[in-house]
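Table S5 (text form). Sequence records supplied for joint modeling of the two-component complex.
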Amino acid sequence: MQSLSTCLRWARRGLASIALSTLLAAATLIQPASAQNAPIVLNHWSYLTASDGDVWARIIDEFNRSNSDIQIKMTVMTHDEYNTKALAGVATGQAPDFGWDTGGLQTHWIKDGVIVRLDDLASRPVSI
Amino acid sequence: MTDFTDNSLRLARYPNFDNGLYLVPMDAMAMAQLINVNQATGAGLDVTQPPTTGEAWNAWMRTLTRYDDQGNLNPAGMTMGTDFSATDAWGIVAYQMGFRRTTDDLKTACVNPEAGTRALRWMLDTLDTQRVATREINANDIYKDFTDGHGSSLWIGPWVLSGFTKQLNLTSAEIPLIGTERHTYLELGGLQVFTQRDTSRYAATMKAIKWLSDNSFEWTTVGRGGAARKSILARPDYLSSAGTIRKPFIDALQYADIGPVPVTAAADFSIYSGSNVLYQELSAVLTGSKPVETFMPDLCGRWQTLLDQG
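The corresponding structure-token record, covering 438 residues in total, follows.
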């Protein structure tokens, strides 16, 4: 069913295949810091490839400017790639830290343990 | 999580998995209608008074539609085609007429299937009797068809707004009441956390997601859908920042309830698809390969099989 979900999103955004591209320039990630206090770099995958993706990229940039302890490395790909690579990534320990999805359509990934239940994580005080 | 709207949390939780939360809501998206202002004013219509009833909508579509020498519609009043724009039109009108895809307990497919058939007949009337929408899409891409001006109106979600408004002079309105109850398509966008071998990464991930949610004002005013955070919705500058084009999409969230059916085969129950079971059954009728009478029995039978599978 994930391929169906993918198709509807593909149809919605009406986009041709877009190669995997890293939007965040390496220069923004490499801060002059010692190895001990280097920021945690989170891998974020996004399938927002239409005009909404431009706005989201600005917000990610703003996050990186505003947070010295965490940096987000965003990778944009088609929804097909997202689904395929995320599954493979979890299996091989190379999954992104977080990514986009649509409410109600994640049943397969919940069953397969691809994504994490958030009730406890969301209720904890945020500190790293 | 108390700042999130109830509707967004409902779609981020999974009843079949102990009502667990698996998504941090970022934006809620309801469908409304976009109208090409230049074509509407060119046809003599007052875009400040868009149609709100089925009767008024028919009159608008008839006024907007033009026919070339061969009798082809260009532009069509409504950009419909036979795939995802057709499935959402059928779904929304069917719900307005009293149809439901499943019972509340998710055990039985199709409540009030007669309303589903009435919605199909409304579509066929729009296509064949009123002749204000076409099955064929000129550019083989309904979005391009609309932005190229081959259709004067489109029922769609807010994900197109930031792109389309750069290409067309548009206005928006809530989808007219063709049936008896207000309903429209609902979709929740959000962020999910992937399983990590190094679980110590979750704290940093949640901190980042919290920041992105706390700072989602721009995302929910100029980025994509409406806010999922009560504090953002309550901001006095929220609606003005979102702009008039987004107001009907935000207002429609109050009654938008045609969201995902939280079962394994959720995608097959979506009313917004160019590939799923609904699309297959609907397009078969719209393209003439199946009779109207088989639509609801065949669709409901396939949906019931999927529900029975869990």
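Note: Helices of chain A lie at 2-13, 26-29, 51-66, 79-92, 107-111, 119-123.
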